[in-house]
Amino acid sequence: MAYKRNVDRLPIIPKDAKKHNVTCHYCIVGCGYHAYTWPIKKEGGPAPGQNAFGADLSKQQGPETEAWYAPSMYNVVKQNGQDVHLVIKPDKGCAVNAGLGSVRGARMAENRRSDITGTQQQRLDQPLVWRYGTWQPTSWDDALDLVARVTARVIDKDNEDDLFVSMFDHGGSAGGYENTWGTGKLYFQSMKVKNCRIHNRPAYNSEVHSSRDMGVDELNYAYSDYGLTDTIMIVGANPLETQTNLFLNHMVPGMRKGAKVIFVDPRRTVSINAAEIEAGKESVLHLAINSGTDLALFNAIFTHIVEKGWIDKDFIAKSTFQGDTAQPQNAQFPAPLGSLEMAKAECKMSVADAAKICGVAEADILKAASWIAEPKDGQRRKCVTAYEKGIIWGNDNYRTIGALVNIGLATGNIGREGGGVCRLGGHQEGYFRPSDAHVGRPAPYLDQLIIAGQGKVHHIWANDHYKTTLNASEFKRVYNKRTNMVKEAMDARAGATREELVDAIVGAIEAGGIFSVNVDIIHTQIGQCAHVILPAVESGEMNLTSMNGERRMRLVEKYMDGPGSSKPDCLIAAGMAQHLERVLREEGRNEYADQFKGYDWKAEEDAFMDGYNTAHPDVTYDRLRAMGNNGVQEPVVGFKDGKLVGTMRLYTDGNFTRHGREDKKALFCGGGWRGLQAPGKATQKANYKFLINNGRSNINWQNWFLDKDNDFVSDRYPYPFLEINPEDMAELGLKAGDLVEVYNDVGATQAMTYPTPTARRGETFMLFGAPTGTQGNVINAGVNELILPNYKQTWGNIRKISDAPSTVAHLSFKSKEYTTG
Amino acid sequence: MKRCDRLVDVGRRQFLRGGAVATAGAAAATVVPTDAKAKPGTALLRYPANKLANVKDLKTNEPLDVGYPDADAPGVLLKLGKKVEGGVGPDGDIVGFSTVCPHKGFPLAYDGDRRTLNCPGHYSVFDCEAGGQQVWGQATQNLPQYILKVDDKGDIYAEGVDELLYGRLSNVL
How far is CA B19 from CA A635, A778, A806, B23, in A? Predict the structure, then answer.
């Protein structure tokens, strides 16, 4: 049977409940919610005067009512040490979501730790230190002392290369401007750590170097542009599932107003199905290209548009570089950058050639070019272009993204109403750190350095390489071994003094081990290797600021206590700095110790003021609080009439600045097609039968770390699904729900068969990042230039390993596509 | 197709009409007043046992519109033609579901080919053969299913619902 809560009624929010601003912290869209809290032994009543809605709750409420909340929106949590009822429900007044809640955000309340209802007992609530062969609870001072003493042994002034750091750089979740500043100040100001990486990639770098090098920030539009455009182009993205309320509340209205929609994706997604319903099939074009051939497609469209003269000549003359090459190709720039003419020559690709490479009809490429750029009623056509991991984690990242931005620039579709060439995004953003210039470009490939035996101490901030990195089979094998060496050394010195223990740890490190410090909200898979585990809080358990995919900045107001003694990451970073300062002073390294001053923060707001506010003095917690769930779109340009003044879309003045060029001219990218670019990909494609395309799903997305402990979600997919064509299944002797092993030259993993008639023969799609089957195990180590991982182009073979286990007997394996009946 | 449209219309009508009539269970369901002397309550919500249909009224794969726990809560009875978990009747194939989408309260339409209830609001799909499991969608719960009983005469009674119904903070108003 499907999972059912058997909740028949819920406590009613009383009139005088406390109401807090909440931006959903899971995905980039950042839907507005309100958190209501009230004392545990009280509730409101059904009469209009008795509840927070002023509604008669003795009656059935209609569709889209504000006066209802699902059991998933309810919990009992601690607030200032007291048990309180909590309801977190969508905010109808928020411009982002207009009252819509996604299957993820609308479970925020249920996904809070509660000792009363028993939810999220996986949350860490106190520091843990590896002792006596397991993890033992301890105090912050004890745990941080050990971290500082071991770390201090491997770092020195101007030489911190043996300290490896994996740290999130996002907003939302447990990120935000406060926490990126706290960690950034520690590692990039007090220290100059260069061997570091970000939560979703094996290096500390941009995901979109080329767009930025061309002068175009990747989040340059407003969500309302989808409602003002002629054409919506979605590339390597599936927004109905992974930016749900952007799709429902902004893209769908655009489609209903007549916008045409182009999807570039090897796979048919539910987004395409929904677009066909909303816009009509005749207004939706799905370019189901061969995996990894996006660049050939975009270059052909660009070539055709320029040849036809469907370009914005005034815009090009005024806002883009004139001449030939502004930036030649070299190790830091995987393609030359410069003028339209230069790009036209470098990117030249005929529609006929592209059709062959991409495996789509010439007529469809011509149709796409026309929908994007052919003037309509004598007017420039508006087109908004959105892309995400399909090309970011795809073949030839730099050139492919550059080629897409080329089209936007050539048609004058950046900085204009109904335009934009933007990332759709994953997490929200919330990046404020000291310069990372010392990291270098290309940045160090951290995971490979670890595999090669480098790094002595590893600080990990909300990264789980085990579930989400590439070459994961090898990484785990080596990391288990190296961290076990330290565990064994620690076990052998049980009962020793701190000094003796540190000596033992350093001895194991020098012998090839690595000391692993894990800061997270849960005990992760890589956390199984940790020697010290430090518990962090999430958004809502602290005040937290971040911005969404249209740069909308909001403050989430703290509405509950974090579990146990857990803390905001910024304060954990501050504690690390303070302990490092103390230890270094004890060791007589005073000059170095001085670098760790300046962390006297009592609360997250202090970190915000120490960091973000210094560059944006208009922006304070009080002012953000007053701006509510609509917040302000960055950059903030002033404070007027009691309100922060923001910027609806970037580059409306035609000046492009992201590259830092003084002339403020955008550059075109001259990146010609050159086949599968990352090492090992072409060989893998030749040697294995199935494309193992991979990505996220509607319910398994940015909150999966919590959802592995959520019954509703784990009931639906106990194992990662592998979408596969039924005829391929028949050849492999597979039935729905059977477990299969996916294997290739670099590793193996397992998944659950999900028959999918719309999947093309030989092209599967596996859920990425699953705790019960890491897709990254079969992704090779080959990266694009500038250490951009290439997760998407992966090939492997498939064999059955088990009949459908009893845990999937109740599952539906029907089509995920909505039908009108 | 016609069938589905009609089902949608029923849902809409019922929403528009609203729920003016409180049922007998309402007093037990709602909040305890602040009297000096507390009244004894019960732990479980008391559902009415309503006769919804007779097995003879059902034809395989043809949905029958019903309302439960009251007329303002539209639902459907289905004879699926194959035994399913939670199914009742001589063939173990009769199930009942709410037809109000637990995401935003839009009326669901039945897809007889797939045997799913589908939401025109935000494309959610619920599998009637798998206990109302959300195949895909934005609801944070699977589709509320009726606890059904069939007596000797073949009369089908609903005696409860296994999830909170959209639009009411107590399933029994």
Answer: 48, 56, 42, 10
DSSP of A251-289: IHHHHHTT-EEEEE-SS--HHHHHHHHHH-GGGEEEE-P
Which H, E and C letters describe A147-216, residue by residue?
A: HHHHHHHHCECCECCCEEEEECCECCCCCHHHHHHHHHHHHHHHCCCCCEEECCECCCCCCCHHHHHCCC
Give the Cα separation of A546 and A148 in Å (integer): 30
Q: Which amino acid belongs to residue A114?
A: S
pLDDT (tens digit per residue) in A307-355? 999 999 999 999 999 999 999 999 999 999 999 999 999 999 999 999 9
pLDDT tens digit sequence for A614-662: 999 999 999 999 999 999 999 999 999 999 999 999 999 999 999 999 9
Cα–Cα distance for residue pair A144/A578, rounded to 1 Å: 9
Q: Is A698 helix (H, G, I), strand (E, B) or coil?
A: coil
Look-up of token digits 């803390």: A567
Secondary structure (3-state) at A86: strand
pLDDT band at B21 (very low <50, low <70, confident <90, very high): very low
A240 touches chain B (CB under 8 A): yes
Give the tokens for residue B172: 């029994």
Q: Is some CB atom of chain A closer than 8 A to the CB atom of B111?
A: yes
- Note whether B57 contacts A: Cβ–Cβ < 8 A: no
pLDDT digits (tens, 9 = 90+) for A707-735: 999 999 999 999 999 999 999 999 999 99
Q: Given this model, what pLDDT does residue B34 score?
A: 55
Nearest Cα residue in chain A from B144: A4
Tell me what pLDDT residue A371 has.
98
* pTM attached to this predicted model: 0.95
Say if A256 is an interface residue toward chain B (CB within 8 Å). Answer: no
Cα of A696 to nearest chain B Cα, Å: 13
DSSP A249: I
pLDDT, tens digit, 9 for 90 and up, residues A74-116: 999 999 999 999 999 999 999 999 999 999 999 999 999 999 9
Spell out where A426-498 has E strands.
457-461
Distance of CA A601 to the CA centre of its chain: 28
Structure tokens at A618: 């208009």
Nearest chain A CA: its distance from B56 CA (Å): 25
Give the C-alpha separation, A253 to A368, whole Å: 21
> B167: which chain A residues are within 8 Å (Cβ-Cβ)?
60-63, 65, 68
Cβ–Cβ under 8 Å, residues A46 and A83? no
Q: Which tens digit of pLDDT belongs to each residue from A377-423?
A: 889 999 999 999 999 999 999 999 999 999 999 999 999 999 999 99
Residue to test with chain B: of A1, A3, A7, A8, most B Cβ within 10 A: A8
Surface-to-core class of residue A189, CB atoms within 10 Å of its CB (0-12 exposed, 13-18 middle, 19+ buried): middle
B82, B122, B149, B153: the active-site residue: B122
- Identify the CA nearest to B125 among candidates A818, A524, A285, A67: A818
DSSP string, A762-813: TEEEEETTBTTB-GGGGS-S-EETTTEE--S--EEEEEEEESPPGGGTT---
